[in-house]
Amino acid sequence: MLKVYTDAAVNGNPGLAGIGIVVSGNGLYEQLSIPLSGSWDNHRAEWEAMRVALKWIEANQKLNSLILLYTDSQIVADSISKKHVKNINFKSFLNECLALLNHFSFYEIHWIPEKQNRGADNLAKQALQKALNNQKK
């Protein structure tokens, strides 16, 4: 079983952003802190965090594991659970996430409060700081 936590941090809305991902289980512990280029709003950045996490799972051949996905974004969790998004701006993110999830043997997605997502949150904030530092160069 793999537990995957995702989060995003944005400076301004829209603004620079970073994403954080924690993957643990089956003797594995991976932390990803990725600055994003361009301008992001908070919802799109949360979607990007989930998309990147799913692509990481696929690239690392973990598709046959039970995958438990955790996000503090209600929009991302609800949209993936219902396989529907109200805001058309998120449709491409949802479609890509669902296409990736179709390759998984079994997954669940859960909304969690921010306080239960501190690991991914800290990584997202570190990535945002990298994005801000890169902009100053």
UniProtKB/TrEMBL annotation:
Keywords: Hydrolase
Top-rank taxon, per record: Bacteria
Catalytic activity, EC: 3.1.26.4
Domain RNase H type-1: 1-133
Top EC category: hydrolase
Keyword Hydrolase: yes
Any one GO MF annotation of this record: RNA-DNA hybrid ribonuclease activity
Record's protein name: Ribonuclease HI family protein
Organism: Marinilactibacillus psychrotolerans
